[in-house]
Amino acid sequence: MPSLWISQARVIDPAAKRDAVGDLFIKDGRMVASLSAADKKRAKKIDARGLVACPGLVDIHVHFREPGQTHKETIATGSQCAAAGGFTTVVCMPNTSPVADNAGTIQFIKDAVERDAVVKVLPTGCITVGLKGQALAPIGSLKRAGVVAITDDGECVQSNELMRRACEYAKMFGLPIMDHCQDQSLTQGAVMNEGVMSTRLGLRGWPHAAEDLIVSRNIILSSYTGAHIHMQHVSSQYSIEMLRRAKARGIRVTGEATPHHIALTDAALSSYDTNFKMNPPLRTEADRQAIIAGLRDGTLDCISTDHAPHTDYEKDREFDFAPNGILGLETALAVTLEVLVRQSRFKLPRVIDLMTRCPAAILGLPAGTLAAEAAADVCLFDPAEKWTYDAKAGFSKSRNSPWDGKTLTGRVKTTIVNGRVVFDGGRIAV
Amino acid sequence: MSWNRKNLLTLEELTLAEINQIHATAAAFKQILGRSVKKVPALRGKTVVNLFLEPSTRTRLSFEMAAKRLSADVVSFDAAHSSTTKGETLRDTAQNIQALNADMIVLRHAASGSPLYLSRVLNIPVINAGDGAHEHPTQGLLDTFTMKEHLGELYGRKIVILGDILFSRVARSNIHALTKMGAAVTLVGPSTLVPDWFTDMGVQVSHDLKSALADAEVVMLLRIQHERQASGHFPSLGEYTSMFGLNKTRASWLNPKAIIMHPGPINRGVEIDSDLADGPRSVILQQVTNGIAVRMAALYLCAGGQPDHVITTS
Hints:
The structure holds 2 protein chains of 2 kinds.
Chain A: E1 4-13, E2 18-27, E3 30-32, H1 37-42, E4 44-47, E5 52-55, E6 57-62, H2 75-84, E7 87-92, H3 103-116, E8 120-123, H4 139-145, E9 150-151, H5 160-172, E10 177-179, E11 192-193, H6 196-201, E12 205-206, H7 208-225, E13 229-231, H8 237-248, E14 253-257, H9 259-263, H10 285-297, E15 302-303, H11 312-315, H12 332-343, H13 348-355, H14 357-363, E16 378-388, E17 407-417, E18 420-424, E19 427-428
Parallel strand pairs in A: 1-4, 1-5, 6-7, 7-8, 9-10, 10-13, 11-12, 13-14, 14-15
Antiparallel strand pairs in A: 1-2, 2-3, 5-16, 16-17, 17-18, 18-19
Chain B: H1 16-33, E1 47-52, H2 58-69, E2 73-78, H3 90-99, E3 104-109, H4 114-121, E4 126-131, H5 137-151, E5 158-162, H6 169-180, E6 184-188, E7 204-206, H7 209-213, E8 218-221, H8 227-230, H9 237-244, H10 248-251, E9 259-261, H11 274-277, H12 284-302
Parallel strand pairs in B: 1-2, 1-3, 3-4, 5-6, 5-8, 6-7, 8-9
Helix pairs in contact in B: 1-12, 2-12, 5-6, 5-12
């Protein structure tokens, strides 16, 4: 593997508080402070003038559908989407078929990752057997098999008693619990945010109170047990206010925001386009602004995509019957730059931080920095390049994106994993 | 002015002028309904398919009769016997119907927004015969047509819609039509079934029946469905009737010339007392008759007919 010399990039490494034009050096898969004259001569040089070089992006919430739903996505295609989007480490959710509630399935996923993935793909395991919310999954065995967190994502443990025991038990292993916060008794048949828009469209509403109840439950249980609970795809203003107070009191809770929840509102549903249907649903402008404010002051810790592929024939249905979820990996950086940097005046290093060091820190992953000796996971992107996203030409097996056909600003040029170029010039390079 | 729409999907998207065009066309067709030969050749040789994927009796019958009086061939499609029960998608079902050379589809579906979806998939006109809790445009058109027959212009008129508004497509279509016409609309019912979000659609929301009915010129009742009780939207049908059922005493709060409407089917003794439903102020059966004329107008215009050229001779 040749050494790499990335020259004259704007290097942004929030973990090292670095933001300056300069060079990056990679040797034997690791970042190094410099290369010897002989190494420099042999190194592959990447002219990165005009580009930003940052740590490879980290996404702690993706669905790669393998095993069992490989018509939607595979670990191979999902990891290619990640590479194309500048992500070098992703954490996949356990709601596969069968679900990842046992060590055997985790091993299956790890084997597929080893064989097929072009970026680092880390598994999570279920909190409960079969995602059914009735009995604890073998969390210790899952930990031993290599999961980085446990979650029933897509479902939400409804029993407070069971969640309490999961907290106590997972804490023993230092495993964070990631929770999809939804009180299901309040969301029967719900397909969009409850409010003015659902009333107008005659669609069954999902009140933000259903998220708020579980976020408050989780804050209370985290406080009571000391377990770390991470709130997935927070969508409600009220939940963010509770998280802000909980964090001020030192409770071990964290939260994530998706690009779609900071970019869009339920007003987008007026044409019943199922590419705007996801769970939790798009909410109001007040919620959207609250999520952005939460990212600004650190109440919300990171950006996660909730990359959730579904095929055309599954999404191309009556709104009520289409599955929840949209693609996210290939558009996440551009959409986030648009909303946070251009519209909301975040500093670029802060946004990079939210997509690198911060998500890695939530799960304690060895990622998100360009410091010497760190694994050489790097993303090079042009923050000003305009491009049109064509989901059909993307790397996913699915096309369900609200940004299909849209012109975006900010484009990933090169993605490097462990010192190997895996994505370059629009192509997967492995 | 000409008619330029191929589909009738919602009243929200229609202009006031378009609503008036449909009403004028319906008025011309209504004359035919009283004759001994109740048929015109406007859609001769055309095939209208009633794709009813949710149970319906009166709306389907009404569309069938309307199409037949325009001399169209009508095929009605019953959900219970359709391949949708074998897992065929709406897109595939509808494309098959189009491939059978149908000229028009009338769709009734439990999922809100499905007529719009179908209109994107098909080339032939789609008429919405009720989609979920979203809209029921021909019902809204026939209701406002009936109101105009009794009250004349609806601008500034006080109109009350009473009952299960939250789940009602009839209410939403009426709200869109009536607000475009400038009527003062008040929605009344238990707060669980009449959320304040409706005020965003330009109407008043009230939970006080007496003040809402005071001097109203129209009260439109909506069917109370038993399953709303199981879902906790109100405690019991008895309590509903005691709080919001229309009886003689409460009807006396209305404007003396007020009309009483109901899209049917009626729950006698629940949302309305039987003698009021059958009484002189009730226009419930006129609504049914007007439904045919309005649906004739909708089919005729969406098939390419023009409001100024209605052929009323057979």
